[in-house]
Amino acid sequence: MMKPEIIELPDAEILYFPYFFSEAEADLYFNKLINTTEWRQDKIRLFGKEILQPRLTALFANNNKTYTYSGLTMKPESFSDDLLKIKATIEKACNVNFTTCLLNLYRGGEDSMGWHADNEKELGENPEIASVSFGAERIFHFKHKTKDEKFKINLKHGSLLIMRGSTQHFWKHQLPKTKKKIGKRINLTFRRIE
Ligand SMILES: O=C(O)CCC(=O)C(=O)O
Ligand SMILES: [Fe+2]
């Protein structure tokens, strides 16, 4: 197993594998996922207002447990063979067997995800979350909830980012918009929901 970069931040446990998937595998998964996923654009509640999410999503799981965030409850479809292969590959680098995968499609620089922590109660205490990126590189930001600490990382095509331990207690993360002219990016976040 290749060695990860350890992202040394206080109150966090974050590992990064910039080249987890080969370029050829990453290209293949990107194209298949773009074309075969039934992408949807749901409404969420933000500061009491209903807005369309600024990205497309899809939810998959090997059980029927729903996932609720920002006032939105998503029901999963069953995993495709490709998602099962990706899941098995990343589980070699992780401490858990994942049940659920949220797919995000950022259609361009206008699509984004705001500051949040993945701390929904169905994820349990100290959730391990594995985030795979395919397609255009985007900058992922972390900020500590109470300390003056920040960190940015460029998430590469075929990379794997693992957040675990107390990370979600102490840190928020976001994927901001960018004015740069960039292509599509797919993100897969694997989680365990029991
Ligand atoms: O697109 C990303 O890299 C972040 C996705 C994320 O934070 C989430 O789905 O909870
Ligand atoms: Fe997240």
From TrEMBL:
Pfam families: 2OG-FeII_Oxy_2. InterPro entries: AlkB-like (IPR027450), AlkB-like_sf (IPR037151), ALKBH3 (IPR032854), Oxoglu/Fe-dep_dioxygenase_dom (IPR005123). Keywords: Dioxygenase, Oxidoreductase. Coiled coil: none annotated. Residues 97-194 form the Fe2OG dioxygenase domain. The keyword Oxidoreductase applies. Signal peptide: none annotated. Gene3D superfamilies: Alpha-ketoglutarate-dependent dioxygenase AlkB-like (2.60.120.590). GO terms for molecular function: dioxygenase activity. The keyword Oxidoreductase applies. This is Alpha-ketoglutarate-dependent dioxygenase AlkB. It comes from Autumnicola edwardsiae. The lineage of its organism: Bacteria, Pseudomonadati, Bacteroidota, Flavobacteriia, Flavobacteriales.
